[in-house]
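Weekly sync, protein design subgroup
Attendees: M.S., D.O., the rotation student, P.L. (late)

Item 1: inverse folding check
M.S. brought a backbone from last month's batch and wanted to see whether the design step gives back something sensible before we order anything. D.O. pointed out we never logged the input encoding, so this time it goes straight into the notes. Structure tokens as presented (265 positions):
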């Protein structure tokens, strides 16, 4: 497992220029492996807000700590990086409040300057330090499965709203319609076994075009065909936009494509 990435970069901070930047990705699991002596605690303030507290002694590998900062990323790059002040002043304790919906995108950076033109930057994944009840909430708020969101009232500025609005004009716009479409598809393509049950398992965005089925960015319903209450015997995808179906699991009797034999030999 690659725990960190070494790279050469140009970092400009005020009048300081760091030609060599080493970024180390830190989680609760691998923190001890790196020999980093700091503590992170999380406290729920309200249903929306979480208080993050960090104690970062300037010792060991963190002896060269110059400043910590909190950052928010969208997975492609950094959207915000703000330095943190000591609290109280001249101590090794820091704290900040963050909206629970942003926890999965938020991290803590420990900027260490060992000398010369180098920086070692420890990037802490804060969501790995959350207690169970908060971690569950954060993963829900950053979920890429849209199915659990259909029964919730999301804020108008929630990042998933534009995608969910597509269902209003979709050919298959709700879970019942998706289930019915999957049953029709299954009956038309080999039929249902008397031992089979079914459930709508997920609703997700497609990452690539599938000709004749759906386009990249379309919402797709995932319906599982379950045998004997515990085994998945088939999985049907239904395109919300086109209403077309697609079986993901090869069924008994399906023919695999193979090269035709050359009878002339």
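Designed sequence read out in the meeting:
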């Amino acid at each position: 497992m690659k725990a960190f990435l070494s790279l050469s970069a140009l970092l400009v901070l005020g009048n300081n220029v760091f030609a060599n930047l080493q970024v180390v990705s830190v989680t609760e699991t691998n923190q001890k492996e790196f020999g980093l002596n700091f503590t992170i605690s999380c406290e729920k303030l309200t249903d929306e807000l979480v208080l993050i507290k960090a104690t970062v002694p300037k010792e060991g590998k963190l002896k060269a700590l110059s400043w910590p900062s909190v950052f928010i990323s969208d997975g492609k790059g950094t959207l915000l990086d703000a330095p943190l002040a000591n609290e109280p002043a001249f101590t090794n304790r820091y704290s900040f409040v963050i909206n629970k919906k942003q926890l999965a995108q938020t991290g803590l950076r420990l900027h260490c300057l060992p000398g010369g033109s180098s920086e070692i930057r420890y990037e802490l994944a804060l969501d790995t330090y959350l207690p169970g009840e908060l971690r569950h909430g954060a993963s829900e708020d950053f979920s890429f499965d849209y199915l659990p969101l259909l029964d919730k009232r999301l804020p108008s500025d929630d990042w998933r709203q534009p995608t969910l609005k597509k269902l209003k004009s979709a050919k298959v716009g709700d879970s019942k319609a998706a289930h019915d479409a999957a049953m029709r598809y299954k009956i038309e393509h080999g039929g249902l076994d008397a031992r089979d049950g079914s459930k709508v398992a997920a609703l997700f965005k497609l990452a690539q075009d599938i000709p004749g089925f759906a386009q990249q960015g379309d919402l797709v319903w995932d319906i599982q065909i379950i045998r004997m209450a515990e085994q998945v015997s088939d999985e049907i995808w239904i395109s919300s936009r086109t209403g077309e179906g697609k079986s993901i699991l090869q069924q008994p009797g399906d023919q695999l494509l193979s090269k035709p034999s050359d009878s002339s030999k």
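Discussion: Confidence is low (pLDDT under 50) at residues 1-17, 254-265. The domain at 4-141 is CATH 2.60.40 (Immunoglobulin-like).
Action: P.L. to compare against the previous round before Friday.
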